[in-house]
Amino acid sequence: MSLLELSKKDSYWRAIALKICRNKFMADDIVQEMYLKLCNNDKDKNDFYVIIVMRNIFLDTIKKDKMFLDVDNYDFKDTDITFEIDDNEKELIEGLKWYEKELIEMSYDKSFHEIQRELNINYQFVRRILNKTKTKWQDQKNKRD
Predict the structure, then answer these.
(1) Which residues fall within 8 angstroms of residue 137, CB to CB, at 6 or more apart?
(2) Is CATH 3.20.20 correct for 87-144?
(3) Given Cys at both, which of 1, 90, 97, 118 links 45, Cβ 3.0 to 4.6 Å?
């Protein structure tokens, strides 16, 4: 794709750049910089390649200027959800050892690494015990059903 063919899709490139950075002025700058980069480039220019170039220009701009993204424009899932054990699961847990019960209850709200740090034990130990315990737990569930 020649530079002339590339410029025929100018409004498309600006729309893509706007989706990348969520700022109209920065999107215009990204597109202009993309034209400058690709005019000296002899590689085959397909749409995907152009989009990757624009994304990299955006990332380079953020790194260079130490900019911060405006998080108001992004949707984040609620991470404050805590899980609780229901009554059926409590009955199944009763047959487990005390440390297995504790690890299962902690695993509802914490990652393996967080459990490891809190209890000051090996990460692999936490993972092995939880996997073994959950297997036992599933076996008990299957027998029960």
Answers:
(1) 92, 93, 96, 104
(2) no
(3) 1
